[in-house]
Amino acid sequence: MPSNLSLYFAKVKLGSAATEMSMQIDTGSDLTWVTCKSCDNCPKSTGLGIQLNSYDPTSSTTASLVPCSSQTCASLSQSGSSSCSEQGSQCTYRLEYQDGSRTLGYYVYDRFAFNTIFKNSLTGSLSAPILFGCSTHQDGELTWNDAAVVDGILAFGPQALSIVSQLLSQGIAPKAFSHCFRGDGVGGGILVLGQILEPSIIYTPLEPSQSHYTLKMQSIAVNGQSLPIDPAVFSTSTGQGTIVDTGTTLVYLVPEAYQPFLNAITAAVTGLATPFQSVDSFCYHVLVTARMLLSGAWAFKRLKIDIVLKDRIFAYDLDEQTIGWTDYD
């Protein structure tokens, strides 16, 4: 994990060749994808200190391509997740992220293997067939940001294509998962598929019928002072909402919340730090305390330009449609 980007990734083994892939954990997307061996412009190195690998479906006896004529491709096409130029060709995808970066490729079924642990000891592995994307082209930040280059994205979003939804549909994992990311700057932590027993977790409900894990924000406070922000600007009825996304480094606020927040931060650090001009705003080398009040729970965060969900257990209970968290070392 590079401290400037707070990028967390997990290692999984893919296919009969058990190719080890380093994949970013992303609760904000639903399509899992890996770099394909045939990718024409994918990065060959990374600043994360890991070896990059690519996936070759022809070297895996458990791999199965998805043709355009298949029912799977027809279903994906209806949901807007695939396209086909010819009936005899492979079922393809095109995915664009909020920052403008893109990945293009084709769909494959193959087995993903995850390590299993008990009381911090490795006990074996869990293997399951997963539908994912084999990326043959990438652009944008996926290629030029050396500190963010990995072998692919491990998608844990709430939609049917995500890896947690596929494991649930196969009866392999319950409708729950959690993560705890270390915050000491060297990375590490744990990603759990299934329920965890932690009595101190406080839960807040998810907003219904949303395409992401969306919470109801009620207020923001800086140094104990609530900010003059109308709660209606956070409402999903206005097309907003507060999304929990491990794949996004920055915190984004709507303009009606951003300016009061920026004013409060500026007032809080006056005399403690010297601002310096960033691309489109001022930055400060200082930490202040902020609280975001959600429906049913408080989220306490160290506030910087980038906020990461570190040194806390975050539990996603998709049966109960809640997210909970608690501090954890």
UniProtKB/TrEMBL annotation:
GO BP field: proteolysis; xylan catabolic process
Catalytic residues (UniProt): 26, 245
Keyword Hydrolase: yes
A GO term, aspect molecular function: aspartic-type endopeptidase activity
UniProt entry keywords in alphabetical sequence: Carbohydrate metabolism, Glycosidase, Hydrolase, Polysaccharide degradation, Xylan degradation
Pfam families named in the record: TAXi_C, TAXi_N
Entry similarity comment: Belongs to the peptidase A1 family.
Protein's UniProt name: Xylanase inhibitor, C-terminal
Native organism taxonomy: Eukaryota, Viridiplantae, Streptophyta, Embryophyta, Tracheophyta
